[in-house]
């Protein structure tokens, strides 16, 4: 699949872009953000699932440590939010972690079904 190849080729740039977006949106004053459909927890779940997906697809050396760093980053963001006119919630972090795990599972399934048999 061409899109998966692109994601794997540009995994680092994609990951850094998504990380930048998550950081910006997480620390921006809530009243300035546009309203989007879905719940807050759904947004967290999707954002962190997308964050880990390029890394989990590419699987560079130490990729699992990168995923753990995303988990720690999620906690740090929740701790910082009260200082920037937002509120931190541990349930948000739980949604982030579940999103990370689901992103890893989706990447594993995609890799399994798109990797030629001789590479498995």
Outline the structure in words.
- The chain has 120 residues and is mainly alpha-helical.
- The protein has one domain.
- It is 72% helix and 0% strand.
- The protein has five helices and no strands.
- The longest helix is centred in the last third of the chain and has 25 residues, at 90-114.
- The chain is elongated.
Strand content: under 5%
Q: What's the N-to-C terminus distance?
A: 17 Å
What is the H-and-E element order? HHHHH
3D shape: elongated
What is the overall number of helices? 5
**Mean pLDDT reading:** 93
Q: Detail the poorly predicted runs.
A: none
Count of DSSP strands: 0
Rg, alpha carbons? 15 Å
Helix-strand makeup class: mainly alpha
Q: How many independent structural domains? A: 1
Largest beta sheet, briefly?
none
Q: Which range best describes the helical content: under 10%, 10-25%, 25-40%, 40-55%, 55-70% or over 70%?
A: over 70%
Summarize the structure.
72% of the residues lie in helices and 0% in strands. It has 120 residues and is an all-alpha fold.
Helix-strand blueprint:
Elements: H1 2-9, H2 11-27, H3 40-58, H4 63-80, H5 90-114
Helix pairs in contact: 1-3, 2-3, 3-4, 3-5, 4-5
Supply database-style keywords.
single chain, 120 residues, mainly alpha, 5 helices
């Amino acid at each position: 699949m061409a899109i998966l190849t692109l994601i794997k080729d540009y995994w680092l740039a994609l990951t850094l872009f998504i990380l930048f977006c998550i950081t910006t949106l997480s620390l921006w004053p809530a009243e300035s953000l546009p309203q989007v459909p879905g719940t807050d927890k759904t947004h967290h779940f999707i954002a962190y699932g997308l964050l880990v997906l390029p890394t989990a697809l590419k699987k560079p050396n130490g990729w699992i440590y990168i995923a753990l760093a995303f988990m720690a980053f999620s906690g740090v963001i929740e701790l910082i939010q009260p200082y920037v006119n937002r509120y931190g919630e541990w349930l948000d972090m739980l949604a982030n972690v579940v999103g990370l795990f689901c992103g890893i599972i989706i990447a594993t399934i995609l890799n399994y079904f798109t990797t030629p048999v001789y590479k498995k």
